[in-house]
Amino acid sequence: MAQLFKGRYAARIEGDFVVFLIGMRIQQLWAVHKWGPVAAAMPRMLRELMHQPELGLLHVHSYWMGRTVLGIQYWRSAEQLHAYANMRDGLHLPAWKAYYRAAANNSAVGVFHETYLIPADSYECIYANMPRTGLAMAGEHVAAVGRMQTMRSRLGQPDGDPPSAT
Q1: Structural domain that includes position 139
Q2: pTM flag (> 0.85)
């Protein structure tokens, strides 16, 4: 079981980073021959990335929700994410080509991704009585004191009354 950190914590990461959501949705449960290889490809790619931290993956959380599998990935840079996606001797390109051969022209399985470029100091997060998770796994897990105490201060804004809408 993950260690529980009592109290309030935040996450801090140096510089810009990328949040990459990637997933698949099983539309036809009986078409295992179509979605099974897609589902099996991701763990192999993640093992490859975790064994080669220089490729830029900082951390990933995977979730299963009904028919959808989602990975929330934290990357050091968009350039490293793009380089991995196009790496000729990596596992991604063969998996992508196999997906297109087996499943892209039918509706048995769908895939998706979303990429968010996060500039330094333009994010905030809080974890209360939680194990280390999310960005705190990709970056530094810090006590939510001082500058890390409020949402506004974590975002580098002055605390106080919100601006009036005039």
Answers
A1: 4-13+119-154
A2: yes
